[in-house]
Fold these 2 entries.
Entry 1:
Amino acid sequence: MRGHLAPTAVSGKDSELTEAGMLDGLKYCGFFAVILLVAGCSSPAPESEAPAANAQEGALPLPLPTMSSAPAVSIARSTDRLDYTYSYPGEAAGIPALDKWLRDDAAAGEREAVLAAGRGEEKGRRHVYAKRWTAQANAPGLLSLAAQYVRFTGGQEPVPLWRTMIWDRQADQPIAFPTLLSDFTSFKPSLQQRVCEAFAAERKRRESEAKEPCPPLEQLNIALVSGAVIGPVRMLRLFADPGVAAPVEEGSYEARLPVDDALVRAVRPEYRAAFAPAL
């Protein structure tokens, strides 16, 4: 399913998921090592930012989240036809409703993978389903996750895809990015222009000769990114599936937009404390 602004659920025995174990099960997809590195590699961030430094004009007060004591969840199952892995961080596991959402997503993904493996015609080719969620922003009132996942069904080498989730702590449910803004329709043109420029710059950086049109916001997966382990949102990560920002053969694309004053002002007062201009 193509990514959307609104988060959508992809609706054996659990075992410890290790990087080595995942790589062993992905012998037909050696490229997946990149997923583990890209999804998890980032410069160490400070643990938190002082709430007073993040106060925004017109923002309603929101408590700064605390560090989660819940352990990360890792699920791994293996059969003669399928290697299945699914994981998410302690920040998500510590929220009961979100933990259930992710477990339902994991169960749905496994059912789909089992059915696909059972229908597989190529004997001796193991199927792979791997999905790994990481925390992108642990901000006042909001938790943002991004997942890179891959499905291998014994055919052509697959392309890793991204999915995102924004969790509203007070409503205790997923929230779509446009809902964070007071008037998304009015703000969309200026945001879309920044998106177009960001993806054009990324195509140039990758020396792409693609003449694809600017990817519309509705076809992107958007993650909120904090500048600290706990702190306000300072950046947007925009993920485009293959064929959205460039030809399919160029794979997925990503662009980043620093949060500016205009975006902070566009955020609804009840969420504004979760955002701050990029440093």
Entry 2:
Amino acid sequence: MTRRVLPLAIAVGLLLLPLAFTEPRVYLTLTIAGLAMGMLIFLVASGLTLIFGLMDVLNFAHGALFSWGAYVGFSVFLTLNRQLGWADSPSGALNALLLLAAIAATMLVAVALGILLERIIVRPVYGQHMFQILITLGATIVMEELIRIGWGPNDQVMPVPVSFQGSWDVADVIVLRFPIVAIVVGALVYAAIAFVLARTRIGLIVRAGVESGEMIQALGHNIYRYFTGVCAAGAALAGLGGLMWAIFSQSVRPGMGGEQLIFAFIVVIIGGLGSVKVTLV
């Protein structure tokens, strides 16, 4: 019992330690901002831990998928705002609908790109890490250049819905609006991943396929089809992370995915390969 309580007590103590040197209001504001930043990184790392941890694939094109997600979301925001004015509308429902439309379009494009990457680029080099690094780095360069061709090489300003701008004043504590949205989205993504991996037949087959792909094939399952689905899911999460980060930073640029990929790899390696729970922590 003591062994279980002691780490938790240490974690709580470290969490509350800054209160000795900081005002509670400032501490809460910074804590919420830190949680939001962590959730944004988790959205990227969660897709990477699925691909890297469950499939043993070093996918350096994950950052390019992040950038594509940001630019697809940017295009949806820009188009719908110009035609319907949803981003500039004070209606929270229209702002939320705009975000949902952008998420749907972003994840759909990312899934398509993820399937193409897995079937054309990744599948021939399963189990060959050096080739995976080289070929996915090449794919990253191609995908980023396609962004520059399609959207231009310069930074673009991301339109942010009115409801996500500004902050709330809760008991003299300044709470920014969009970080709360990011925290909620990150929590929902974690719950969905944990449920699929732990409670569904697909999750069981994927986890078993990582341990012994030949056994799963012998039982009549096409393990490559499941791995394609995992790669598509990881790509969708990368695209979602790119969209949320673009809204958070209020800008998009072709090389933004490479910057976040470094943090994602750090989180996945420290948190444990394939462990979504530890990646969240």
